[in-house]
Structure formats: C-alpha cells, structure tokens
Amino acid sequence: MYRALHDAIRDAAKFARLDYVQLHGDEPPDVIGQLGGLHVIRAFRLADRWQPIAEYLQRCRELGSLPAAVLVDACRPGSYGGTGELADWSMTRQYHELGLDLPLILAGGLRPDNVAAAIAAVRPFGVDTASGVENLPGKKDAGKTTVFVAAAREALTEQDALMDFDK
Q1: For residue 166, what pLDDT is reported?
Q2: CATH pick for 3-166 out of 3.20.20.70, 3.30.1120.10, 3.40.50.970, 3.40.1700.10
C-alpha cells in the first residue's frame, strides 16, 4: 500500500536535493526504513499521553529504523499540522523523560511572539512553524518569518549555553 508513497517521497527528495523529509501522516514504522538514504523527521500529534508515540518509536527501534528526529505538534483530530493550535508545552517537555535519545522538534502554534518562551519551557533541539508566520492562510510573511527565525536562534543559543553550563 505504501510502495507508491515511498517512491514518490524518494523521487521528490532527489529532485529537490533534500536530505531530510518530514512524515506527518499515519505511516507505519516500517516506512521509515523503506526510505533508505533519507533522514526522516517523524511528526506526531501529542494528545494527552506519550504511550502511543513511545510504542511507535519502540517498534521503529525493533525494526532498526529510528527516525532522525521527532517532531511534536498540537493535536486536532483530523488535522496533520498547520492548525495554529498551541502544543501543550508541559506535556511536550515530558519527552526528555522517555529516554529516547532522539532530537525533539517542537511545533504547534509557534509564532514570533511565543517561540522564545516555548524553547525555554520545552528545551527542544529545534522548532517548526507554519501558520505562525502567515499573513493569510497558506501565505508566508517574510517579515514574520525573519522575526521568528531571529527569536528562535537567540533562544536556542541561550538554551545551548545553559545546557553547557548544566554539564
């Protein structure tokens, strides 16, 4: 069932010269391994517990095909990101307690005015935004994007300095 999907992802990544791809759907764990040569960022919609995500990643580990990173987004049933809804930062921070040793990318309602607070609260490896830098649905605003990136870089740099200090 997913064979055509694998080929389409690989072809698009090759055409665009991508090293990383994000999977936001309901792909089973074996899809990651079948995208050989690509680094997969696996997106999850975090509802009220980590168990389904931890089980998915454990299955990936058993198959020898862990994703390169885990992206955590807000959960809105039937939606696969870009909703503008804020992820639960206290719930997301629990990721560090799972011992998965995979980089965490935070998404879910991030905007230029809240990305620094999100980074301070969750301490992710990176952040992702979509609707948070749009001026109209589907239309990115260059000014908002520039401010978002600057705020995220500053907060991530401060976080790195704090993490180095904690060692």
Answers
A1: 46
A2: 3.20.20.70
Cβ atoms of residues 151 and 117 within 8 Å: no
CA distance 65 to 83: 29
Return the higher-pLDDT residue of 6 and 118.
Answer: 118
DSSP 93-161: HGGGGTT--S-EEE-SS--TTTHHHHHHHH--SEE--SGGGEEETTEE-HHHHHHHHHHHHHHHHHHHH
In the chain, where are the structural domains located? Answer: 3-166
CA gap 24, 42 in Å, rounded:
7
Q: How far apart are CA 135 and CA 143, in angstroms?
A: 10
